[in-house]
Automatic annotation (TrEMBL):
The modification N6-(pyridoxal phosphate)lysine is found at residue 370. Belongs to the group II decarboxylase family. Pfam families: Pyridoxal_deC (PF00282). This is Cysteine sulfinic acid decarboxylase isoform X3. One of its GO terms (cellular component) is cytoplasm. Its cofactor is pyridoxal 5'-phosphate. Residues 31-48 have a biased composition (Basic and acidic residues). Keywords: Decarboxylase, Lyase, Pyridoxal phosphate. The keyword Lyase applies. One of its GO terms (molecular function) is sulfinoalanine decarboxylase activity. It comes from Dipodomys ordii (Ord's kangaroo rat). Residues 22-64 are annotated as: Disordered. One of its GO terms (biological process) is taurine biosynthetic process.
Length: 429
C-alpha cells in the first residue's frame, strides 16, 4: 500500500496499491471480506504491506484501491510518528493562522493570481508519498496564501473574527470525526444538540418544539419550505408534485436568494415566489403582502408560506413580524422567519424588540456562525411543532440504522429528521 503524505496536505485516506491484487473494485479482499465501510479484515495490514520498495513500483498505479486507514501513516515503510506530526501541525496553526492571522501588523491575505498560486502550491495529486517536512511546508503554504478571516481588518458581509471557544470545539469535533445519525455513534453530540436547540427555542419564546442544525441558512430555509408544504399536503412525500395544486409563497424583495433557490430545488419553481414590496428601509410592507395573497388566489394559486426576514442580507432590515404574523393567521399560512443573519439580536437587551413577534412563527432559521462567531457552518432550524413533523416529513426508516428495539430511547436517533446520511451534517457536530 502506498504510504505517506502523497499530494497536497497528504491525503489521510491514502490511495495506493498492494503488491498482490488483494482488493477488488467492490472493496473486498480475496477472501470476500468487505474492507471499506463498517467491517474490516483484522489482518489487512499484514496482507497489504508493500512487497517491493516504492522506487521499484510502476509509475502509474491502478487508482482503484481506496482504503480506510487502519495503520499508522508511514513514509517509505517507516511508521510516521502521528503525534509528532500533529504537534507540529498544531504549532504551525497557532503561529501562522492564529497569532499572525489575527495580528493587525500582518496581511489579511498574501494575494496571488491563480496561475502563480497554482505554481507555488504544486497542487497535482501525486502517487508518491512525501516526507513529514514537506507535508509541514505544505501546511504553512496553505495558511500563508489563504485569507485570514480572524484578522481585525477582514471585513465580510456576514461573518468574521476568530472565537477561541468555537475553534476549540471544532478541533474536538474534527478529531472525533463522527456521524450524527444515532445516539450510539454520537452520544455526547446528540445530547448537546438537543440542549442547544432547547436554549435557542427558549430565546425565541417557545417552551417546546423541535429543530435541527443544518449545513447553512439556505438549507434551513429550504427545510422550512419543505415542511410547510408537507404539513399542508402530506401526500406530496409519496406522490410528489402530482399531489399539489400550483402553490404560492411570499417574501420581500430584500429576501435572501436562497428562497428562490429553494423554490427551484423543491420543484415549486421560482414563479411560485411572490415578491412583496419593501419600504425605503427594506422592510416588508404587510399591506402589500395581503394584497399579493389575494392576487395569487385570484390567479388560481394556493398560498402556503410567508418567509419574513430578520436582518436582510444587504440592508440589515428587520421585517415587522407581528404584523406579518397577523396576515399569516388570517390566511392560515405557515410563517417562517429567516433570521439567519439577525437572529442573534435575540441576545441583545437593546435590540431584541426588532424581533418582536418571532414567537408567533412556525419556523425560524438562525445562523450562529454569523453574529455569534461560531465556526462555519452553524445554522439552526427551529420549529414550534411538537408533532414530530421533521421526522414524518424527511424520515425513511432505514432499518440498518434506526432499529426500534435499541436499549435506549430511540427518539435520540435524530438522523432520520434530516436529509443527510452518514456524514457529519456540517453544523450539527
Ligand atoms: C438573511 C439570510 N438568509 C440566509 C442566508 C444563507 O445562509 P448560508 O450562507 O448559511 O446558507 C444568509 C446568508 O448570507 C442571509 O443573510
Amino acid at each position: 500500500m502506498e504510504e505517506g503524505g502523497g499530494g497536497p496536505l497528504g491525503l489521510l485516506c491514502r490511495v495506493g496499491w498492494p503488491a498482490k491484487p488483494a482488493l477488488s473494485r467492490g472493496g473486498q479482499n480475496p477472501r470476500g471480506e468487505k474492507l471499506c465501510g463498517h467491517r474490516r479484515a483484522p489482518d489487512w495490514r499484514a496482507e497489504t504491506k508493500p512487497a517491493v520498495p516504492t522506487s521499484a513500483r510502476s509509475p502509474s498505479p491502478p487508482q482503484d484501491f481506496i482504503l480506510m486507514a487502519d495503520s499508522k501513516p508511514a513514509v517509505d515503510g517507516e511508521p510516521m510518528d502521528m503525534e509528532a506530526l500533529l504537534q507540529s501541525v498544531f504549532g504551525i496553526v497557532i503561529d501562522e493562522a492564529i497569532q499572525k492571522g489575527t495580528s493587525a501588523s500582518e496581511k489579511v491575505c498574501e494575494w496571488k493570481e491563480p496561475e502563480e498560486l497554482k505554481q507555488l502550491l504544486d497542487l497535482e495529486l501525486q502517487s508518491q508519498g512525501e516526507s513529514q517536512e514537506q507535508i509541514l511546508e505544505r501546511c504553512r503554504a496553505v495558511i500563508r496564501y489563504s485569507v485570514k478571516t480572524g484578522h481585525p481588518r477582514f471585513f465580510n458581509q456576514l461573518f468574521s473574527g476568530l472565537d477561541p471557544h468555537a475553534l476549540a470545539g471544532r478541533i474536538i469535533t474534527e478529531s472525533l470525526n463522527t456521524s450524527q445519525y444515532t445516539y450510539e455513534i454520537a452520544p455526547v453530540f446528540v445530547l448537546m444538540e438537543e440542549e442547544v436547540l432547547k436554549k435557542l427555542r427558549a430565546l425565541v419564546g417557545w417552551s417546546s418544539g423541535d429543530g435541527v442544525f443544518c449545513p447553512g441558512g439556505s438549507v434551513s430555509n429550504m427545510y422550512a419550505m419543505n415542511l410547510a408544504r408537507y404539513q399542508r399536503y402530506p401526500d406530496c412525500k409519496q406522490r410528489g408534485l402530482r399531489a399539489l395544486p400550483p402553490l404560492a409563497l411570499f417574501t420581500s424583495k430584500e429576501c435572501h436568494y436562497s428562497i428562490n433557490k429553494g423554490a427551484a430545488f423543491l420543484g415549486l419553481g421560482t414563479d411560485s415566489v411572490r415578491v412583496v414590496k419593501a419600504d425605503e428601509r427594506g422592510k416588508m410592507i404587510p399591506e402589500d403582502l395581503e394584497r399579493q395573497i389575494f392576487q395569487a388566489e385570484a390567479e388560481g394559486s394556493v398560498p402556503f408560506l410567508v418567509s419574513a426576514t430578520s436582518g436582510t442580507t444587504v440592508l440589515g432590515a428587520f421585517d415587522p413580524l407581528d404584523a406579518i404574523a397577523d396576515v399569516c393567521q388570517r390566511h392560515g399560512l405557515w410563517f417562517h422567519v429567516d433570521a439567519a443573519w439577525g437572529g442573534s439580536v435575540l441576545l441583545s437587551q437593546m435590540h431584541r424588540h426588532l424581533l418582536d413577534g418571532i414567537q408567533r412563527a412556525d419556523s425560524v432559521a438562525w445562523n450562529p456562525h454569523k453574529l455569534l462567531a461560531a465556526g462555519l457552518q452553524c445554522s439552526a432550524l427551529l420549529l414550534r411543532d411538537t408533532s414530530n413533523l421533521l421526522k414524518r416529513c424527511h424520515g425513511s426508516q432505514a432499518s440498518y440504522l434506526f432499529q426500534q428495539d435499541k436499549f435506549y430511547d430511540v427518539a435520540l436517533d435524530t438522523g432520520d429528521k434530516v436529509l443527510g446520511g452518514g456524514n457529519k451534517e456540517t453544523g450539527r457536530v
